[in-house]
Specification:
Layout lengths: L3 E8 L10 H16 L8 E5 L10 H9 L5 E5 L5 H14 L5 E9 L5 H10 L3 H8 L3 H16 L3 H15 L13 H5 L3 E3 L2 E2 L8 E10 H7 L4 E10 L14 H14 L12 E3 L5 H10 L8 H6 L16 H5 L6 H13 L15 E8 L4 E8 L7
Parallel strand pairs: 2-3, 2-4, 9-10
Antiparallel strand pairs: 1-7, 1-8, 4-7, 5-6, 8-11, 10-11
The protein binds coenzyme A (COA).
């Protein structure tokens, strides 16, 4: 297998993007990534478009995007792994290059969610749990699903609504330093606590928003990088797992089994000690679609013991200067969550962080040269954990 590196990455301003159609949004992210990689678009051998879709007008996004970017007739495909679609695209791009089938592959996520009203979006996402049983019979929506995890966690470990709001306060703080974030306002604990309930105990500020946006990552083979590039960030391990469709088939509601499995695989591939991963990483992007999801991620990734995730954020251990800074771009909560583009946007953020290129007072200290992205689809229906490194030989 060949080594694979990232040579350019970017994401658009997230939020309500009625100013751009799908092709224009994709171009905005791609053009920036291309400039950063300093290569011609003809170098791209294949493209993978991550998009959950359904809510937007275009139903063949891979064709629309590759035509818009001017990279057809090179091959393309659309991938879907719900909110983890972007990480699935990165994995596929990695595997195509590692196996020697291509030298440069584009993973591009794009989503135009705001074309549809909230109730349509909530229904489509809700159906992504398990339509025939949980959606049809119980009307479960995603805020509802994660509210079940939150109540299970609160009942098991004694966490409070205020504790969950600490995650929103942190992520809005870092969102305020990221000009591409959907929300750039800082919030207080009181503001979060007094926001209206969406699904008890989750309130408006416990939820990620509905977002338009695109993100692009250019991946290349070691040979290509040696010939054309002076710097790259390397993929040192990708772990992945798929959970059950029905929540009723799961036996633990205080964490996500698929995420734990994905993390252990990624640690094994990247040569990271699963007993103390935080000390070997400089920062992480985790899937905070709801505040409880970030707390469970700390524990599923081994950054905190079971039941102690809340302590990490309360003690500011996931701010810059703490044990492991998390979501320095504002996370899904404040940066936004354009479902199919979220995974690539996490990788783009980590790429720039590792290279020390992040401005606005949210650059992490880079000592270990390694960073982690945790991207969950559904409620652990899919999970991907990707570890990036500045060191080409950094793998088990
Ligand atoms: N956090 C903070 N503020 C939010 C917000 C959020 N998640 N969502 C909307 N707002 C704000 C808007 O900016 C707007 O503020 P304004 O009145 O000052 O302009 C106000 O709340 C109303 O916005 P609107 O777009 O009408 O919200 P909504 O009520 O239609 O939708 C949710 C709110 C929470 C229902 C919606 O964002 C949602 O469903 N989020 C979850 C998405 C999801 O499930 N993703 C997949 C996760 S796995």
């Amino acid at each position: 297998m060949r080594r694979v590196g990232i040579i350019g990455a970017s994401y658009t301003k997230f939020g309500e993007r009625f100013d751009s159609n799908m092709q224009e949004l994709a171009w905005e992210a791609f053009n920036d990534a291309l400039k950063e990689a300093n290569i011609e678009k003809d170098s791209v051998d294949y493209s993978i478009v991550s998009n959950m879709g359904g809510w937007s007008s275009e139903s063949l996004p891979a064709v629309i995007v590759s035509e818009g970017l001017g990279i057809n007739p090179k091959g393309s495909v659309r991938v879907e792994a719900a909110c983890a679609s972007g990480s699935a695209a990165i994995k596929l791009a990695h595997d195509i290059i590692a196996s020697g089938q291509a030298d440069v592959v584009l993973a591009l996520g794009v989503e135009k969610m705001r074309e549809s009203p909230t109730k349509t979006i909530v229904e489509y996402i809700g159906r992504a749990g398990n339509f025939m049983w949980e959606f049809e019979n119980f009307g479960l929506t995603f805020p509802g699903y994660y509210a079940l995890y939150a109540t299970a966690y609160m009942s098991k470990y004694g966490a409070k609504e205020e504790d969950l709001c600490e995650v929103a306060v942190k992520n809005h703080y870092y969102g305020s330093l990221n000009e591409k974030a959907q929300f750039t306002n800082r919030i207080t604990l009181e503001k979060c606590m007094s926001s209206p309930y969406v699904a008890w105990p989750l309130k408006l500020y416990d939820c990620s928003p509905i977002t338009d946006g695109a993100a692009a990552v250019l991946l290349a083979s070691e040979n290509f990088i040696k010939e054309h590039k002076s710097e790259a960030v390397w993929i040192s391990g990708i772990g992945y797992a798929t959970g059950t469709a029905n929540l009723s088939k799961r036996d633990d509601f205080s964490g996500l089994d698929a995420a734990r499995r994905a993390a252990l695989q990624a640690y094994a591939k990247a040569g990271i000690n699963p007993d103390r991963p935080a000390s070997q990483l400089d920062l992480a992007e985790v899937h905070d679609c709801f505040t409880i999801a970030e707390v469970m991620a700390y524990e599923d990734l081994g950054f905190a013991k079971k039941g102690e995730g809340i302590k990490l954020v309360k003690e500011k251990q996931t701010y810059i200067g703490g044990l492991i800074p998390v979501n320095l771009d504002g996370g899904l909560k404040a940066k936004g969550h354009p479902i199919g583009a979220t995974g690539e946007s996490m990788i783009a953020e980590l790429y720039h962080q590792l290279l020390g290129k992040v401005k606005g007072g949210r650059q992490a200290d880079i000592k270990n040269g390694r960073a982690l992205a945790h991207n969950v689809g559904g409620t652990g229906h899919y999970a991907y954990v990707t570890i990036l490194s500045l060191d080409r030989s950094d793998h088990a």
